[in-house]
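[09:14] KT: can someone run the structure on this one? pasting the chain below
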Amino acid sequence: SSPALERMNGFNSAIERFPQLQNVHKIYAQWEVDLVRDSLASVLQKYPLVKAIFAHTDLMAEAAGEIISEQFPTRNILVVGVDGLPNEGGGIEMVEKGTISATLIYPSGGKEAIQIAAKILHKQPFQKNNLLPTTLIDRSNVDITRIQFQNINALKKT
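[09:31] RB: done, structure tokens below
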């Protein structure tokens, strides 16, 4: 899917800038959590020096975190997911509970997509590639992030 390809391309281009990092294995889970659960243990046995796992969704990261907790509890492996949803069971809660180490929040780009569509319709110049800001949520800022989302939700109700 487009989101998976974009996340994979972004990840690959980011780690290229750090030659000390090595991507030792990719699990092509096809958005299926069970594929992560079924294959991660053997990957971690094969690569005992793995220090971090990047997952394209928080649900995939959660599955990785659970496997590590159950089968490799003495290994200190950073697990990072993507989505950072504030809902029950979402990435922010996973960080709060320690299931995953961090989650990345990024905007959906809906506003930007509408603005670009308007430019196209009005035959105005537009950029084909548009970068969206990303925020890392980890133990250091998960509490304030939760409070911010609660305040936003409270404002929506008034």
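[09:33] KT: thanks! The chain has a mean pLDDT of 89.
[09:34] RB: yep, looked fine to me
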